[in-house]
Fold:
Amino acid sequence: MSKSAVQQVGLAMQRVVWSRRASSWDEMSNPGLERVISELVEYVGDRPEAIAIDLGCGSGQLSIPLAAHVKEVVAVDIAPRMVELLDDKLKRAGISNVKPSVGSVQELGLGDGAVQLVVSNYVLHHLSDREKAEFVKDAFRWLSPGGELVFGDMMFGRGGTAEDRKVIADKVKVLLGKGVGGWWRIAKNGVRYLFRIQEKPISLAAWVGLLKEAGFEEITSKRIVAEAAIVCARKPA
Ligand SMILES: C[S@@+](CC[C@H](N)C(=O)[O-])C[C@H]1O[C@@H](n2cnc3c(N)ncnc32)[C@H](O)[C@@H]1O
Structure:
């Protein structure tokens, strides 16, 4: 994918924002997110021969539990600070089959058929819609025949469907109940969502459409908590 100046600025922004947020993200405990991760790991199950790539691995919330079920996890994140945190955790835990590196989803130089699994959690909503479509096509190419793309993310659209409106209303209701901190998050995330700054989720149906268009089969999905769902799709064998 060749990068426009706008894309380069977007990537630089993500790098700075997430390097600054790395420690707080790592320390935050979020039961909803934990459920999404455990569903992703459970879906993958044991695949001792598989090489997986975890895109936007952060400090390893998904890469580390996944490593116990696959041969190797290539863990990539745009934010150097996140990769440092992951590296420290791996050293402390003596885990050797996770290979962390700094890089972006949009600039991976992965060969065709290089991996058996492409996984990601709570990252793809940061991509523009065009980048999401390109990512799905890239993931199809990176996977070996029969390989799978398995990801979790916030999935809702711009309020055009009853499902979107329910997800948004539920989220606002929960945050309203959290006092000033919650109201601040409604304001901050509302602006980001309205103007598509950082937060650019699309609906589950839109993801399924992109996956079908790229050639994926056996597409399954599951809503886990209000905003979050997981999607699994196979490249034909
Ligand atoms: C919400 S955090 C999720 C981290 C991790 N996947 C987890 O489940 O804890 C989003 C992560 O995506 C990374 N990220 C954002 N845009 C990216 C991009 N274009 N390429 C690679 N990583 C990206 C950020 O640096 C951050 O670590």
